[in-house]
Fold this protein.
Amino acid sequence: MHLAETGDLVLKPMIIETGKKNNKNILNYIFGAGSISELGSILERTSTNKDRSAIYIVDQFFEANLESLGKLPISGRDVTTYVNTENEPTTDYVNGLIESFLTDRTEEPFAVIGIGGGATLDVAKAISNLLTNGGHAEDYQGWDLVRIPGIYKIGIPTISGTGAEATRTCVMTHPPTGIKLGMNSDHTVFDQIILDPNLTKTVPLDQYFYTGMDAYIHCAEALNGHYRNAVGDALSSQVIKLCREVFLSDDMRSDENREKLMVASYLGGCAVATTYVGVLHPFSAGLSVVLGIHHGLANCIAMTAMGEFYPREVEEFWRMVQKQNVHIPRGVCEGLDRKQHDLLYESTIIHEKPLINALGDRFKSILTKSKVKNIFKSM
Ligand code: NAD
Ligand code: ZN
């Protein structure tokens, strides 16, 4: 064990055993403003059969703004589905999409192309896996349950922060149990991604901050954890540096900053793929599952109550909020009843790996029920 330093962050002793031993990265990526124009040639290289069709899974924002994606190589045989992002993806939603694809056509598509935020990219990953593996989305929620590779999948993020473009999971809530869990599998990793910072120009200010902070938070939690490794640390410290440059600047959405945040998101996804998040994400998951608050905003709300665990990050977070003049709702857990607090506790404490990463094996004796309740009430 040793103490390491990155910039002004003093790290906890590192446990070399990461729990994740063999990491898969994205095989191919293109980066640069305007790079979405490469999609056509990538698809041509993927299949020489001109009669085969592709499935486009596109964020609903682009239904009325398709021109902002440039000229997409969509042919008459292809299917385009717009993802409703009002609610975060559920297994039912994904199962419904699969059912409609299977009803409408008999032939297997040669590519699934996801264009959008974390929600849309996750839906695209799940669709690709299910089209070849069969069954229902919930059958594969967990670790390494996807048996065979999915359809060739391409991810094109249009908002930066979650790192969903880089990770081996696609997060969905299963409504009957309320469990929010992904298909964690090497087969979930995109075969190709296109990182085009032009695509994030239209993201509204608050949303840009909420989702962008996900990258900062993933890496701050990873660096403050016990389960670390040299690769994860190197990536995470670079992500923190980039996020500081973006969120402490005068215009977080300048061309240069949108480019930096897209890189931070991607590297952050690669970083957390090698280790775990910490205390904040379990609390954020509680807010999402019980109160339906979306991931990026839920993270920011949870951050306001993390002073005990991440004091330096909380202080830096508020400086970024002030600098960018972003609205962070307060008091979201005021007036909740006992049943809702019980649910919040259950859906937080269930995230054992991140909590062990942050607090050690005895995390339940630190995060007692009354403590968890007080933390939620202070948000
Ligand atoms: P999101 O995908 O819901 O998008 C946020 C909002 O931004 C939506 O309203 C969307 O329509 C809009 N939007 C997207 N691109 C836009 C653009 N270019 N212009 C204007 N509006 C645009 O949210 P998110 O924060 O990107 O992703 C959150 C989801 O990602 C959650 O479901 C979370 O569970 C998941 N997630 C997945 C991973 C992973 O590794 N797979 C990691 C973190 C989070
Ligand atoms: Zn996250």
Remarks:
- Residues 205-223 form the longest helix (19 residues).
- Residues 69 and 199 are 7 Å apart (CA to CA).
- The two ends are 35 Å apart (CA to CA).
